[in-house]
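To whoever picks this up:

The nightly regression suite flagged Peptidase C14 caspase domain-containing protein as changed. Nothing in the input moved, so I suspect the structure step. Input below, exactly as stored in the fixture:
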Amino acid sequence: MQGTRRVKALCIGADVYTHLDPLDEAVKDARRMHRDLEGSSGCSSFLLANPSTRQSMLDILSSLAMDCQTKRPELMLVFYAGHAIQLSSGEIAMLTCDVVRPEMSEEQGWSVVTVADMLSAMAAGAENVEGLKYRASEIGQD
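Regenerated output under the current build:
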């Protein structure tokens, strides 16, 4: 149908953390958002519950972007419910379920995923998604 907005979404929920207090509703919220998006005309949504590692989050973002090479969406949406921290750089980072100490993860790049990380993973997966590489390289620069 012409004029129908095409949307690709990734809904992430993280409740069960190895070394942090668990959350009660994050996965439920992500499932609800996923279900609502899937029920919307022209929207395709993927669900990732309790991502165990940083790489698991980046891999699914890259896969989503690769899928966009053949079915280019008008909008790509990432929904996240879970623990997050503000890094010393000012960026907000999502924490994966394997995080031990968030402050050490920031220094080492473990168990945290920033917006710049997400854009870079998507750019790596979709060389032809217009403007994605440019925006990924500009995040965090003044």
